[in-house]
Design goal:
Elements (H helix, E strand, L loop, with lengths): L4 H24 L6 E7 L32 E5 L2 H10 L13 E6 L11 E5 L2 E5 L3 H11 L3 H18 E11 L4 H12 L4 E8 L14 E8 L19 H11 L20 E2 L21 H11 L5 E4 L6 H8 L3 E6 L2 H13 L5 E6 L16 H12 L2 E2 L10 E3 L5 E5 L5 E2 L1 H13 L7 E6 L1 E2 L3 H7 L5 E5 L4 H8 L1 H7 L5 E2 L2 E4 L3 E5 L2 E12 L10 H13 L5 E7 L8 E2 L1 E4 L15 E7 L5 E8 L4 E7 L1
Length: 634
């Protein structure tokens, strides 16, 4: 007989504590996970009309660690928040970020509520809609979160809450937003980690909507738990007051007058309003505020976060959201003069947030990812114990043979029989990066005496600069191919032997961007640079996480309008080869230039200070989150 959740709580706590302890021990031993900067974003979206660009002011010698003039850069991080928090606890030397242990003043999180949630994302394309499945990294994360239902969910939350406590300052507060599915169990975890004495509020956020629930009262409130790190927590009650109900002050005053000369405890109402009670009925769902809606299913209203951020932080304080979603926490924190970090493992969420921040014209911020999804970070997670075996499966499906343990103990390498072709399979829990390509090229020159003619790298997820790495090693005869993102599903449904027999697994080339030759026109002290996209070549629809019917729709779009797949593109007209500084952007849903929410503009003119020579880097991100770069010398 299966154990109840109450019986499983000791195991949940024990495993969560052990995972967090191992993470903190790794940090103290010097084994750290770093952040990779994908973009330094200087918001400057195209607003000047069709085929006409803006005039960005490009900072000279921009100091990444002081982009806001105070030694701080706000951050949008794509990746697993467990790894992101490890990186923040360790600090990021590349961008001048010290360890944030004990430095975060407010954390708001809105984690997923329900294991039966549909994590697909609707994508609107010209003439059709398609449904995108999660990426491989997301698939692994979601499967792990819900493998044992609520038990797995609580275990996932426990270790993360411990790291959040490590990040909180002594004056810090955490707000955890949850609904009826798991709220009572999460409260037990919070009591255990933060201490019952630091429990401050159970806030009921009440909202209304049409409902027909049959035999139940409609479930129309969420719970927000509020805990402090210590007794020194911030609570700015006087700036979050709300008006009294109409007539309340008059009635209170009349009662005072009627009782003059009598002994009584009169309540004198403050005409500035009252501090909100722990049930909030004056904030509606995000859909009721149309101007805020960014097309994200679980978006929370800005008014909700405004109350929380004003109550529990001051200007200049650091606010974090590790389940960033639509980016409401960071957007409001920016508007209220707070510093912020937000994170999400979902590619769609990262795309939505980046565009939202640019729309809001926030201060320059870093868009980062986990620099290396290290296998060590997952080694105690039972879902990943067969990663090595999976590499052998992929080798077989590609038509390669594994090496014997006597030849090499690296199970990610194999070879094509009868050829001098080396094959390397990357792990599904990491990004294939420039370092991966370098490792493959080095293995080609040294493994088993070298003398390999070619090396093929098979990857699942790719870093933003992978196309540059491929160009760098183009003379080394290295080929990079994409492992189908639905391979895990196919293995579960058909099995390895069936996939071998029917040869249905296809490995495709990476997507790439084509730009027309740049046109540079001197204009006094400025250069006018005309940049125009020519084509976008997507990897095979068979290797996109879509159902078969949507793959057919995608093929039609690719044939008639390939550039419509560009979700976002940006330009760095002074690319230094290291940090991409996004100084001009356009994206779908930006209708201030062409009134077309389904297309970007594909041509722009940048006016930049005259320079004898420069590198112009063009980056594009498609609707599925795949990134491509083109670098042109002028």
């Amino acid at each position: 007989m299966a154990k109840s959740l109450i019986e499983e709580l000791p195991r949940i706590v024990s495993e969560g504590r052990r995972e967090a302890a191992q993470i903190l021990e790794r940090l103290s031993s010097g084994t750290q996970i770093g952040l990779q900067t994908n973009e330094l974003v200087l918001p400057s979206k195209d607003v000047s009309g069709l085929f006409k660009g803006s005039t960005p002011q490009i900072p000279n010698a921009f100091n990444m660690a002081g982009g806001n003039g105070d030694g701080w850069m706000n951050r949008l991080i794509y990746g697993d928040n467990l790894l992101a928090m490890q990186a923040l606890l360790a600090g990021d030397a590349q961008t001048g970020l010290p360890s944030l242990r004990g430095k975060v003043d407010l954390i708001y999180i809105d984690p997923p509520f329900d294991s039966k949630a549909d994590y697909r994302t609707k994508i609107s394309l010209p003439g059709t809609d398609i449904q995108q499945k999660p990426t491989v990294i997301e698939q692994f994360a979601y499967a792990d979160t819900w493998e044992e239902g609520t038990i797995s969910y609580l275990r996932m939350m426990y270790s993360r809450l411990i790291l959040m406590k490590e990040l909180l300052s002594d004056k810090g507060t955490i707000y955890l937003h949850i609904d009826w599915h798991t709220s009572s169990y999460v409260k037990i975890l919070l009591d255990d980690i933060f201490g019952k004495d630091n429990f401050r509020n159970e806030i009921a956020w009440c909202y209304t909507a049409a409902s027909n629930t049959g035999k139940d009262f409609p479930k129309k409130h969420d719970t927000i738990y509020r805990y402090s790190k210590s007794d020194a927590y911030i609570f700015n009650k006087d700036i979050i007051r709300i008006p009294y109900a109409e007539g309340s002050i008059d009635r209170a005053n009349r009662n005072v007058i009627a009782r003059e000369g009598m002994k009584f405890n009169a309540i004198v109402l403050n005409d500035r309003g009252k501090v909100p009670e722990d049930w909030w009925v004056d904030v509606q769902r995000a859909a009721r505020y149309p101007g805020e809606v960014v097309g994200y299913a679980t978006q929370k209203p800005e008014k909700l976060l405004e109350r929380i951020i004003k109550a529990s932080s001051n200007e200049g304080d650091l606010v974090c959201d590790f389940f960033g979603g639509s980016g409401t926490t960071a957007a409001v924190a920016e508007r209220l003069g707070r510093r912020w970090i937000t994170c999400d493992i979902g590619k769609p969420a990262s795309l939505v947030m980046r565009k939202r921040f640019i729309d809001q014209e926030v201060k320059p911020f870093l868009y980062q990812s986990i620099g290396d999804y290290q296998k060590e970070a997952f080694k105690n997670n039972k879902r990943y114990k067969h990663v090595g075996d999976l590499s052998q499966v992929v080798l077989g499906l590609y038509g390669a043979l594994p090496f014997t343990p006597e030849q090499t103990n690296d199970r990610n390498f194999g070879y094509i029989k009868g050829t001098r072709t080396l094959v390397m399979v990357d792990s599904p829990n990491r990004l294939t990066t420039a370092a991966t390509i370098r490792k493959a090229v080095e293995a080609k020159a040294s493994l088993l005496g070298g003398d390999w003619e070619k090396v093929v790298v098979l990857g699942w997820n790719f870093a933003f600069d992978i196309s540059q790495a491929i160009q760098k090693y183009q003379n080394s005869n290295v080929e990079v191919l994409v492992i189908p993102p639905d391979l895990l599903d196919k293995l579960a449904k058909k099995g390895y032997k069936k996939l071998i027999d029917d040869r249905s697994v296809r490995f495709s080339s990476l997507q790439y961007l084509v730009a027309k030759p740049l046109v540079v026109t001197p204009a006094g002290e400025l250069d006018e640079i005309d940049v125009e996209l020519e084509n976008y070549v997507l990897l095979s629809p068979d290797n996109i996480p879509l159902d078969d019917k949507d793959k057919e729709k995608l093929k039609e779009v690719l044939e008639r309008d390939p550039l419509s797949l560009i979700e976002y593109w940006s330009i760095d007209p002074d690319y230094d080869g290291v940090t991409f500084r996004s100084t001009w952007q356009d994206y779908r849903e930006n209708i201030e230039n062409d009134n077309d929410p389904l297309h970007c503009v594909y041509k722009t003119r940048l006016r930049v200070p005259h320079k004898g020579s420069r590198q112009v880097c063009i980056k594009a991100v498609d609707v599925f989150g795949f990134e491509s770069q083109v670098v042109e010398s002028v």
